[in-house]
Amino acid sequence: MRRWFILITSLSFVFTIRTSVSAQVNRFEPSPHVFRIHSKCDVEPRQRVQTGFRVKRQKGIITALHGVLGCSTITAQPGGNGRSFANLKVVAVDISRDLALLRSDEMAQSDSGGLDEVPTFTTGELIVVGYPRLVASQRPTTVKAEYIEPLYNLLPEQVIPYLRRRSSPMLDLDVYSVEGHLAPGHSGAPLITRDWRVVAIGNGGLDVGRVEMAWAVPVHAIAWKPVTQAGIAAELKKLATMDFEFAFNVAVPEGYEPPEQILPPPQVWNDLSLNATYVKITKGEYQFGSTYVEANKGLQICYEYSGGLCGWEAFADEIVHQERRGTGVLPDFWIMETEVTNAQYDQCVRAGACSKLSASVRPSGPPDHPVRLGEVKHALDFARWACGRLPTELEWEKAARGPEAYLYPWGNEWDASHANSCGAECSKQPKTNIQLASDRYPETAPVYSFATGRSPYGLYHMAGNVREWVARDKNRPGISHDYMMKGGSFYDFPDVLRAADRLRSPIDSDGTVTAGFRIVRDRVGNYCG
Questions:
Q1: Which of 90, 125, 322, 432 has the most CB atoms around it within 10 Å of its CB?
Q2: How many CB atoms are closer than 10 A to CB 83?
């Protein structure tokens, strides 16, 4: 059964961007002007979490009205090093557009600051910023905003009577139709151009989980009314009751259980001696491998880029069961946030624990780029020196795919802007006529780049940059070698960058060394063993 919902569930987004002139998607950093809104509400026991943001012309935080209705305790935490706000109140609303303006006494006395706005916009690519469903790390997602049209043109017939009775949002409201991956929790998320200006506010969508169709409210059209205006308080009270009924008494697919809470922010540990950050992957279930359909999709992607140079056997060993992925439970482990860099490997060389290697085994590169190693024994030497080990295939795959077991670290669809893969700048070109975009890096990129492609746990380059050495897992058949590689590299096409793909060789057919690694630890702190 298909379910309609307004994005009200306890899942939300707070990722924004560096306010510089750079227009590269991979230059995103947390912004002090976009907030994670926490609301404790009288109508339900669970805390609501959604997104809000500030614009320069407005003293307050803009967010979705439906997520703060009936809530007595509202706080805002910024992305980055900005200022948090407590004791927020709804001071103005645009009921027809389902929007609220939050403000506190402290905020009213502070400098407003905020993001710029776009006065006019017709259609094109935008970036929605925040936390996808069950994802701990902040990340932007590229979507396409279509022409403005009345909301009722986007809705299934069974939903229209409810919204007509509710009048928030209004059915004749002009909105953007959004094509792309929005999810519960995007309520109040800003949709932004590549030059960092707000176009619209994420507001609602269709289906359970990942939204197949959604709408956004143009920011320039907001018409605020103070909550002290006659009749507003009574209307808000009525809407709060209806929101409760709607959010928790709608039809859902048989067997569907909504999550009780979001994935908590990751616990991290900084190894200051190595200048490395480790992220804790907590004990729990995970999925691995591919279904027959998913493996066959990988083969079709290979054909699309490589023509007749694709063999089914390279994809068949991903399959665990014909119709479902494999599942299991792993204990806690800590994994490096990035690949090991040239600078970190050189520390090991200076300590006498790692070998100084020839260019044929270890190509040179900038200090903040991943080290490339043609032989796994050198990665093992580093891991022992750093009090860690290589991840197993299943540990690596869980860290790359997240709780929902995405095909790529960022989701289920290929997006060249999220990874350092083989693009137009790559010396190896497709065997077909497909046109490649350029990612500006002919070979490796800095390990803290392509932030939009981070995994649900916040790990960088789990797809692309360098293939990563992992240890064979005794619970995963199909590979006879003790070590293999995952994730693909700057020299690979999208079929190889899928998290389920299994690679044997650290060196491409033309001799290019493409393998690097990251390490895991079972414990952190002053522990080695």
A1: 90
A2: 13
CA pair distance 331, 285, nearest whole angstrom: 9
Same domain for 158 and 23, yes or no, is yes
Residues 6+ apart with CB under 8 A from 296: 315
Please classify residue 149 by burial: count the beta carbons closer than 10 Å to its beta carbon, then call 0-12 exposed, 13-18 middle and 19+ buried: middle
Which among 192, 218, 248 is the end of a domain? 248
Residues of the chain with pLDDT under 70: 1-30, 42-47, 80, 111-112, 131-139, 156-168, 180-185, 204-213, 241-265, 307-308, 321-324, 475-480, 509-510, 529
Cα separation, 100 vs 116, whole angstroms = 19
In degrees and rounded to multiples of 5, residue 128 shows phi and psi of: -95, 135
Range of the domain at 164: 4-248
In a domain? residue 481: yes
Distance CA 87, CA 79 (A): 19
Which tokens is 119 given?
């006065």
Query: Does one domain contain both 309 and 202?
Result: no
Count of structural domains within the chain: 2
42: left (phi over 0), alpha (psi -120 to 50) or beta: alpha
The residue written with tokens 């790529």 in the block is 408
The answer to whether the predicted template modeling score (pTM) of the entire model surpasses 0.70 is: no
Report the pLDDT value the prediction gives residue 42, as an integer from 0 to 100. 66
**Beta-carbon neighbour count of residue 233 at 10 Å?**
11
